[in-house]
Amino acid sequence: MGKVTYKRFKGSQNLRLRLLLATLSATPVLIEDIRADETLPGLRPHEISFLRLLERVSDDCLIEINETGTKLKYKPGIVMGGKHLVHDCGVNRSIGYFLEPLVVLGLFAKKSLMVRLKGITNDSKDPSVDTFRSATLPMLRQFGVPSEGLELKIESRGVPPHGGGEVVLSIPIVQSLEAVTWSDEGMVKRIRGVTFSTRVSSQFENTMIHAARGIFNRLLPDVHIFTDHKAGPQAGNSPGYGISLVAETTSGCFISADTAVSYVRGNDIDEMEDEKELMPPENVGEQIASFLLQEIEQGGVVDSTHQGLLFLLCAMCPQDVSKIRVGKLSPYGIETLRHIKDFLGVKFVIKPDPSTGTVILKCVGSGLKNLSRKSS
Amino acid sequence: VERTVSRKNINLMQLVYGTSASTTAINEKRESIDDEESDGDDFFKLKGEGNKKLKEGLDGTDINTEDCSKFTNYADLKNWKEEEIYESIRDRFVTGDWSKAAQRN
């Protein structure tokens, strides 16, 4: 047996991206100095949970962590997929944190993936499950992913600090993706959204909707925001409320914005000093509606949050040219571009389009094929 | 990073991939300085200080930054209730001028 050569990294940054790309490109990675100088060194519970999830969906992968958790060795296996899997995401990060890499992995699994994820469905740090359902999944269809068997069911909701939400994710497998020429943003034809409330009065939702509509109404009549008040066991373990919005354009782009409000996580030392008072629902609605308009103003076929996923999908296409348009490059988008070059050897040609203030990116896909899929 | 992206003439390729020789040289230099420093006073170092040094990692960013794709910058939100401001994006909506919108492509 030959000696395994590991791609080496430092620090906890972009851990999901590194592990995802390592798995897709079958590259073993070694990550050192993970929060080595912090009072609480090493991997965080949500990162461990993500590693467990990787272990669960794949066969023959090898994970080694040193005693303090500051050093991680990962040798990817074959992504198996499978049905009726259950994973507890914990309450450190929301389910959105796990969905982002999982959806890409699922496409290249041996069997289609169906997994029940438990934890936090809505918070302010990660994309909400609603955004995932109404903006992320439609985006996959642009790349030739069939809509059959592609869905996210929200069974119950949970917000920080104690979570208690549950969703079921189904991802079909693909042989390969289809390269895209996707630079037409179109015009916003409708805005849809959903508010939720758990363990608080449903009146909070009406207030958020009223405030958000107040921002949109002068621009567009076709605005519908639904409510989703949860009670009993479906409301999870903590009180909270929030809103997710999606602007749909004439060319099939989905621009999203979301947020949620709840009490801070008790174990998060950094956030302990934050004020206890929650933002009133009126401000929440107004803020997120304004943020959506800002995303629309900046242009691009996806919002800032989805840039990373867009670049990943383009890089995983067959060896054809993809051309896409985004607004300002987001910091996470830039990190994704760098890691794609590291792992897949795909370098994008990036050109600003001064007349619109957007950025045009082109790349030739890495020709990633789903090798683990059974040929029939 | 944000501000540089918005400038029109910036070479985005360079910003993302850092291909030019000068930037890599600067990074290397900074790295070697860090190494020398940490050799000496590694032993008596306050937790906090170590943190700061780490934060200056390769290209001036913390190697342990939080892994977050969601872009949340609510700090400089414009007042979208003002007519002048919301009218400025009118043509991005179907209620606006379709011919102007078509020029974007």
TrEMBL record, chain A:
Residues 184-297 form the RNA 3'-terminal phosphate cyclase insert domain. GO terms for molecular function: RNA endonuclease activity. It comes from the Eukaryota. GO terms for cellular component: nucleolus. Residues 8-350 form the RNA 3'-terminal phosphate cyclase domain. One of its GO terms (biological process) is endonucleolytic cleavage of tricistronic rRNA transcript (SSU-rRNA, 5.8S rRNA, LSU-rRNA). The keyword tRNA-binding does not apply. PROSITE patterns: RTC. It holds the Pfam family RTC. It is found in: Nucleus, Nucleolus. Its main location: nucleus. Keywords: Nucleus, Ribosome biogenesis. PANTHER family: RNA 3' TERMINAL PHOSPHATE CYCLASE, RNA 3'-TERMINAL PHOSPHATE CYCLASE-LIKE PROTEIN. Belongs to the RNA 3'-terminal cyclase family. Type 2 subfamily. NCBIfam families: 18S_RNA_Rcl1p. This is RNA 3'-terminal phosphate cyclase-like protein. It comes from Hevea brasiliensis.
